[in-house]
Amino acid sequence: MKNIMLQTKNLCKTFKGQQAVNNVSLSIPEHSVYGLLGPNGAGKSTTLKMLTGMLRPTSGEILFQGKPWSRKDLAHIGALIESPPLYENLTAKENLKVRATLLGLPEARIDEVLQLVDLTNTGKKLSGQFSLGMKQRLGIAIALLHNPKLLILDEPTNGLDPIGIQEQRELIRSFPKHGITVILSSHILSEVEQIADHIGIIAGGILAYQDVITPGESLETLFMQIAQEYRKGEK
């Protein structure tokens, strides 16, 4: 049985009296790809922002490697939420160098992450001229620069063309063998089916399902069944 990298217990977030995340208890196994599924507005991004310290939970608990989460744990967590934080007038290598200098990391680490995300041959091309897929990969490289144990990705294939989606899929699937646990959110069922080995399904801020993905099981059928049950429960 795998160790648990990250766990939440009855995690809640309320905005102006509106419950966005309601008693969510996630369990993320080490060296896995965990897909957090749900329609837009279900509470996925809010949950991920709490895991990365961007939002403070209203109540509940987050455990990282079995201990209560603290801001010190961000040294072991990388994240790409929303748009990649790029300086578009700099090359891929220059973007990474800025962050490596801020973090006090050796320059050798820059070449390592560029190789990992397959951006070693971009040379003097400015990141503002990159395709959306390349920008996403550079954003992931920035998130990986400090060698995190956990990588959190919010809708990583959003807006990509089919080639970009395929490249991103292969990249994410490669991370567990490099010792990196991945949590990714998505509303695209077919993508999660091909990337993740564990899933959680959020509906209306509630974690309605969590389990290992069973080979041959239709994720779409499962998702629709859970979504319909949730709607019935709302009435």
Brief account:
With 235 residues, this protein is an alpha/beta fold.
Shape: globular
Write down the secondary-structure element order: EEEEHEEEHHHEHEHEEH
| Low-pLDDT runs | none
- What strand order characterises the main sheet? 7-8-9-4-10-11
User: What structural class do the secondary elements suggest?
Assistant: alpha/beta
- N- and C-termini, Cα separation: 39 Å
Q: Provide the gyration radius in Å.
A: 18 Å
Q: Which percent band covers the strand fraction? A: 25-35%
Distinct helical segment count:
7
> Mean pLDDT, as a whole number?
90
Helical content band: 25-40%
- Please describe the biggest sheet, giving its number of strands, its sense, and whether it closes into a barrel: 6 strands, mixed
How many β-strand stretches?
Answer: 11
InterPro entries: AAA+_ATPase, ABC_Gallidermin_ATP-bd, ABC_transporter-like_ATP-bd, ABC_transporter-like_CS, P-loop_NTPase
Domain ABC transporter: 6-229
Family: Belongs to the ABC transporter superfamily.
Organism: Paenibacillus septentrionalis
Protein architecture, described:
Pfam families: ABC_tran. InterPro entries: AAA+_ATPase (IPR003593), ABC_Gallidermin_ATP-bd (IPR022501), ABC_transporter-like_ATP-bd (IPR003439), ABC_transporter-like_CS (IPR017871), P-loop_NTPase (IPR027417). Residues 6-229 form the ABC transporter domain. The protein has 235 residues and is α/β, with parallel strands linked by helices. It has helices spanning 44-51, 92-103, 108-116, 132-144, 162-174, 189-195, 219-234, and strands at residues 4-15, 18-24, 27-29, 33-37, 59-64, 67-68, 77-80, 150-154, 181-186, 198-203, 206-212. It has a six-stranded mixed sheet with strand order 7-8-9-4-10-11, with helices on both faces.
